[in-house]
Amino acid sequence: MSRLREIKRLRRAAPRSRFMHFSRYALVALVVAAWANPSRWPFQLLHGQRAENLRRFLDRELTPYPLRDGDWGAGDLFSWFADLFATRGARATLATLAISALAILLAAACAWTLAPFAARNLSTRRPVESLNSAPESRAWRLLRGGVFAIFIALRALPEYILAYLLIALLGPGTAWPAVLALAIHNTGILGRLSAESVENLEPGPLQALRYSGARRSDLIVAGVWPLSIGRWLTYFFYRFETCVRESTALGMLGIASLGYWISDAQANHYYDEVFFFVGLSGLIVVAADFASARARRSLRESD
Amino acid sequence: MNALRRPFPVGPRGRLLLVFAVVGAISFSVLGLSLSGLLPATGAAGQFGDFFGAALHPAVDYQADWVPVGAPPFLQTVVRAMLETLLLAAAAMSLALWMAIPLALWTSESLWARQVRGANGRESRHAAGRVILPVLRVFIAGMRSVHELLWAVVLLAAFGDHEFLAVLAIAIPFSGTLAKVFSEMLDEAPTDSTSALAEAGLSPILCFVFGRLPRALPDMTAYSFYRFECAVRSSAVMGFFGFPTIGYYLKLSYENLHYREVWTWLYALIALVLVFEAWSARLRSRWIAR
Known about the structure:
The complex is a heterodimer.
Chain A: H1 2-13, H2 18-35, H3 48-61, H4 74-118, H5 138-156, H6 159-170, H7 176-199, H8 203-211, H9 216-250, H10 258-267, H11 271-302
Chain B: H1 2-5, H2 12-30, H3 45-53, H4 74-107, H5 109-112, E1 113-115, E2 123-125, H6 127-145, H7 148-159, H8 163-188, H9 192-199, H10 204-238, H11 246-255, H12 259-289
Antiparallel strand pairs in B: 1-2
Helix pairs in contact in B: 4-8, 4-10, 4-12, 6-8, 7-8, 8-10, 9-10, 10-12, 11-12
């Protein structure tokens, strides 16, 4: 009994943070407020007309077209798949992959160039020298803060909204809006992660370079890039995988990725085709996921 | 010596750069891009200027000449939409977590691992785990590999308009991602407390619950917060499908060429994301530091 009391006493005496306390209440309040709105409750989802709609959707609209009228063979189904894939699927899959590859390459080029300027150990008056007493110059602090703020700002807007805005400005019929939208968002993410990894580099090799007379540019080219490229590539592949996923959806804005054919089929109420293309997009995301996991594992092992 | 024997003096890093350049060039030509495509569309040059000019003075009132009687003030609409965006994200995240936690427990290797007592002491997998694990992994991969907007297309086609569908469309891929990452965190958690409990004779399930789960919990909480931040962005985009979040109003203003209103919506979204990010970064630093 006294042990229980002791535990209670310890719990009361434990240091408390007002911030954590506030955060806990804020989170609970958010979730309660979110579900307090009855129009968000799922209970009406399977009643009346909706149930009827769902039944029709599952029984008829989702069934691949050649299977709808009773007499069918597996051959018809296969040729339906093959036809959809040959006429639109293959081309759209290629475009989806090309958009994400180009976007992530652009993002990596920007991020890897800018990252050293956002790192605290390099973007100072005397880079990597362990002189804590050296006064920090204001210009360098401004540059560093500026680059970091750019990274944060670039990733604040979602890709879909960026692409939507860019389409009207650059005109329809080109894939640039999707490429640029993905590149902008990912420059922010890669830049921030890369800058943090530069800050966590072992100071030894860099200091050795510095004290044997390397300038800042030498430090970056001969020290920072070779030392951090392994870690940066891990981030690169991780973001590539999310780029593929995102670029399937960007097509719904009218850019020639898989999403384009999904919204096209949806507009015609060809839900069997919607289902086919959504499935195809899922498959290529799984494939990209697998490839990037393999690449990251081999990077980890070669470290 | 080695450099001389190579066909050409390019190391592994140089080779990687070459591969990247080739992939970039192929993508460029597959997409039929040209550098002139980066210039504003013909006839849109004026629009270009208007749009970026409006960035400096975002709207604080409706830009339309005619506003329906009884419409709330513009800024009130902005605050309302920000709140809706946040609430949709909160609903989606709470549902996603609720689905993800059991999935993560069932798909973590360590739940099914059984220590084989014997000479070699290898770990083997529980019989049920050998079936359940791969099946659930495929299921999770399916959930997260379809984008939330594509889930929204499918769900809206199946059920018709309903606000719960927006919640579900975000919650499905998010819970897939959470489940995958959670299960990896559980497997990679430090094993010291687990082995101590096992030495003391606790059953494997109890070892998992009291030894492994608490060690992974800080990482899991921190990651959930990061995903919450992503959910805020996704919930803003859900507005493009007619749900009353920021994206809905942004699209409306953009279609009416009310660029100053568009910038107000953009700034509102950026502010929402940044405030949330600052909050979650501070929370994460506390959990991870411990």
